[in-house]
From TrEMBL:
It holds the Pfam family NADAR. InterPro entries: NADAR, YbiA-like_sf. NCBIfam families: ribofla_fusion. This is NADAR domain-containing protein. It catalyses: 2,5-diamino-6-hydroxy-4-(5-phosphoribosylamino)-pyrimidine + H2O = 2,5,6-triamino-4-hydroxypyrimidine + D-ribose 5-phosphate; 5-amino-6-(5-phospho-D-ribosylamino)uracil + H2O = 5,6-diaminouracil + D-ribose 5-phosphate. It comes from Bosea vaviloviae. SUPFAM superfamilies: YbiA-like. Residues 12-166 form the NADAR domain.
Length: 170
């Protein structure tokens, strides 16, 4: 039985990571999409930034999702990130429609994760109606950002997947 925090909010990036870290896109749970195996949802997601076989091979080979994020940084990212960027090192740019495509790509990755792992799906369902929040101060799109008012798309996608699972199991 999963203990839901009293405020009915699961802040799985920091506050509640120990119990709910499985919700993270960094969680080690290989997924298969279109006949390709990816070590984590993060690997799959970042790999979609380019159709380049060399880029995708570099992403797949990365041992840790944090390394994947550095490899996938756009060439014009802050110097710290751009120094590890595959795009900067290879004089290329991510796909032009990335900002329009990324949300659907993440949804696809998360759906694949919970479809492949019934134990993780059961744990996601066990969160009931709790609000799922990626309480990352450094990500103002997927998380809540520095001011806490970011759109929390990572959490919103997980709640959508949870609702999909709930409808399928009833």
């Amino acid at each position: 039985m999963i203990a839901i925090p009293a405020d009915n909010r699961i802040l799985y990036y920091r506050r509640d990571r120990e119990a709910f870290g499985f919700l993270s896109h960094f969680h080690s749970s290989p997924i298969e999409i279109d006949g390709e195996i990816w070590p984590t949802v993060e690997h799959f997601y970042q790999a979609q930034k380019s159709p380049s076989h060399a880029y995708r091979a570099a992403i797949r080979a990365a041992q840790h999702p944090g390394h994947v994020k550095r490899l996938s940084a756009p060439p014009d990212a802050k110097a710290r990130l751009a120094s590890g960027s595959w795009f900067a090192q290879n004089g290329q740019r991510p796909r032009a429609d990335w900002e329009d495509a990324k949300l659907e790509i993440m949804k696809r990755g998360d759906h694949a994760k919970y479809a492949r792992y019934p134990d993780l799906a059961a744990r996601l369902l066990a969160t009931g109606d709790a609000e799922l929040i990626e309480d990352s101060e450094s990500d103002g799109f997927w998380g809540i950002g520095k001011d806490g008012g970011g759109p929390n798309w990572a959490g919103r996608v997980l709640m959508e997947v949870r609702e999909h699972l709930r409808r399928r199991s009833s």
